[in-house]
Design a protein that fits this description.
Layout lengths: L7 H15 L3 H18 L10 H5 L20 H11 L12 E3 L8 E2 L2 E7 L2 E5 L10
Helix pairs in contact: 1-2, 1-4, 2-4
Length: about 140
């Protein structure tokens, strides 16, 4: 059962985002990017309070994803990423992105905090950050 509402166009859009942001991170990394996106739609908190749809999440500005500014984001979604998008829309969560609202690729080690949010872990080159539960209970 879906944890966020999604049309077929939303699934395709999330699949494109997953690929553009994390294709080099493999299936697990792409699922984690999807987790962050779905968490932003679910969150109703912090920078994501006005975000209610996958489309709003993908194109949020400021504070959205860098990939939407790159030409490769606009390539057609592939079947593999479409399946991954459906998995996260249906609630599959992967640590350390299970409750994360942010990720980034630092030059070195993951800082313990990033913009006052706590590091939940690293996967390959990306560090993931979670909000305090009382600030964003819908993410937990």
């Amino acid at each position: 059962m879906a944890v966020v509402q999604a049309t077929e166009k939303d699934v395709q859009l999330l699949a494109r985002l997953i690929r553009a942001e994390a294709e080099g991170e493999g299936v697990q990394g792409m699922l984690m990017v999807g987790n962050v996106g779905v968490n932003r739609v679910r969150g109703d908190c912090l920078d994501f309070k006005p975000i209610r749809t996958i489309r709003q999440m993908v194109f949020q500005s400021p504070g959205g994803f860098e990939a939407v500014q790159k030409s490769y984001f606009y390539q057609r979604a592939r079947p593999q990423e479409i399946k991954l998008a459906r998995r996260v829309i249906n609630g599959e969560r992967i640590h350390p992105a299970r409750h994360a609202l942010w990720f980034f690729k630092p030059v070195g080690n993951c800082p313990a905090q990033w913009y006052d949010q706590w590091n939940s872990g690293r996967f390959k080159s990306h560090c993931f950050y979670i909000p305090v539960a009382v600030e964003c209970p819908r993410v937990y």
